[in-house]
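Recap for those who missed Tuesday's class. We walked through two folding examples back to back. For each one, the amino acid string is listed first and its predicted structure tokens come directly after. Nothing is annotated here on purpose, so try labeling regions yourself before you check the end of the notes.
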Amino acid sequence: MSKKVRNLLLALLVLLPTVALSGPSGQALAFTCAGCHGTDGSSVGPSSPSIAAMDPDVFIDAMQAYKRDQRNSTIMNRIAKGYSDEQIKAMAWFFAKQELRLYTQETDQQLVSLGEKLHNSYCEKCHEEGGRPGDSGTLAGQWMPYLDYSMQDFIDGRRPYPRKMKRKVDAAIEEQGEQAMPALIHYYGSQH
């Protein structure tokens, strides 16, 4: 056996335990999310959000909140508890690299117009570019039923508001009453 081959084999033996202990990749772990969030994180169903192109910190914060039962959900609290912090980070980086695919939804143009106005007045500072993926999460193109459930969780106190969101939501509701949330939801749902 040549010295070169022997050194290569020794290097592989040294690396093998590291590879074996590192566990599944972010992509392999992400396959467990496919049933609800799509194979690449672009949801094809109305009650699950798209998580493709999501900022990794937003993904990690959401999963940690689910693990600690600090975020309302029907099933994610139980699912998140099954992952280690390292696995969550691996999934976060996998989904961050995926291209977000958006689907056309049926929207009301009057509500879309009002929602755009409300977004520009109250939401644009944190949810830039019409709610495109960023460090405040993705609103643009999310399924409208999911957005409705999520907003109801905030409004009903089942989910804590981040940063200044409550003040902005309250101001939008004060300005437009019952039409504020449906208008914002139709606006975000119209983005594709």
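Example two. Treat it independently of the first, because the proteins are unrelated.
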Amino acid sequence: MEYLDLSPYDYLGFPLPMLTVGWLGRRHGVQGAGATPVTGVELRRLRTASQRLGSITLGWHDCAFCPDFSGNGEYRYYLPRGEIYAAPMMIVHYVEVHGYRPPRDLLDGLRLVGKLRWDWRAEHLHSVLLDQSADFDFRCEAAELWPRERSTR
């Protein structure tokens, strides 16, 4: 799977809108590779934010640029201003080994990450949970995410 950075996420169903980062492949290459390299502080923030793996599937995705790495699953980054980014679990590998530079919006947003506020995301998850006609997978995702959103109200 390959996306240009900041494309709308549509790979797997999810109850909240997300943008993609780090979905690299041969067609678009290593996005941001010519830009200023990620600093040590930015890499630490990205690693810290990339702890909880979700959307694990039955298959593995091999790195398109080297034979030594494959991954499965996604990280989601919930930023305080309301943005949500989805990245493959390979994002840190792409940064460290292939010089990938995530978009500035994500790197800047990771400086501000702390407790999430009760905002439109929590309200939407709440409505998905209560909607018995909603997609079952969406309701499961909402059930998993909503307590984290709600706890900071």
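Answers for example two:
The two ends are 36 Å apart (CA to CA).
The chain has a mean pLDDT of 81.
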